[in-house]
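Researcher: Here's the sequence for the chain we discussed earlier.
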Amino acid sequence: MKKFIFSSITVLFLISTGSVMAEEISVGSVTPLTGKLAVYGEGFQQAMLLAADEINAAGGIKGNNLKIVFEDNNSTSKGSVSALRKLITIDKLPLIFGPASSSNFLAVCPIAQDNKTILLAAESAAAAITKCGSYVFRVFPSDLLQGVGVAELTSSLGYKEVVLTYVNNDWGVGLAEVFKAEFTASGGKIIDELPHGEGKTDYRSEILRMKRHNPKAIVNLTYIKEGATILKQAYETGLNVQWLMGSASKSPKLIDLAGKASEGVIGTYPTFSQETPQYKTFKAGWEKKYPGKKTPVFGEYNYDMVKLTALALESAASDSSDDIRAALIKVSQGYIGTTGDKSFDESGDVNASYGRWTIKDGSITDYK
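Model: Thanks. This is the structure I predict for it:
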């Protein structure tokens, strides 16, 4: 049986007040704090810490403070495996927040499943994650939903033929496959398909190939840095098209990196109301803890993940993985978080609806 890690087995009395120092219940997190995904990782960590602060201020979990043990994976699958194994074997934690990037998450989910360690995702969307196993959950919707959303966006804008480019990893390939199936089934045509490498700084050869087709629209399913580089270099070569993108590019950082080349981009994203009490609570908490900082891409999902975990740990019959897993499924049913309904289905997935975003006058706004 796996145990929670407590900060001390000794109860410390504060002489000046006579009060007792609370113990800590720890969970793990494999987070990209360095490497190519660090552009996301800092925001993920900040959102998780905000949720933990609020949980502890409200009394913690069964009177104990929640502590998140962060392990940096250097944004790689190899680093993710090392970090997860450390949290399982050394720290002996029964619940871990899994790494960003579907490729990294898919590298570790079999290990978690084999060790009966609960693994949760807040941004990994590859359809294959659904098959990871009974100890794996995610509060972010599958690409099966996002791929349909991008295809519907493309068709609704009247584009019958498009060039398709996507980051060449598990997430990008999976999302592209769903998009292709949906778009072609509705009568659309892919006039060229170009997977592009992750983490490159020069995509001019891919851009020149795209340009030869003289397309009216290009569907670009990619990340922030890769997306910004492609947009900027395409702009510099005079490629003037309508760029259509997904949720992983929806960030002010895309505008910071690409500048005016990002103007007019249209994309899809899993949408949720910003008028709910849950969102207003998150927003107020964020502005208080991180004044002047914009909410990060997928930050709300990381916040919801921690809040839902705390509810499960509070109601679990014991600290065993099986009891925590049963509690997680139970408390998720009908739970409305910042990002909406987080009810897990039989595969550990959640549902979602998709909205549309665009960049107008240097800012991200809803596309109508």
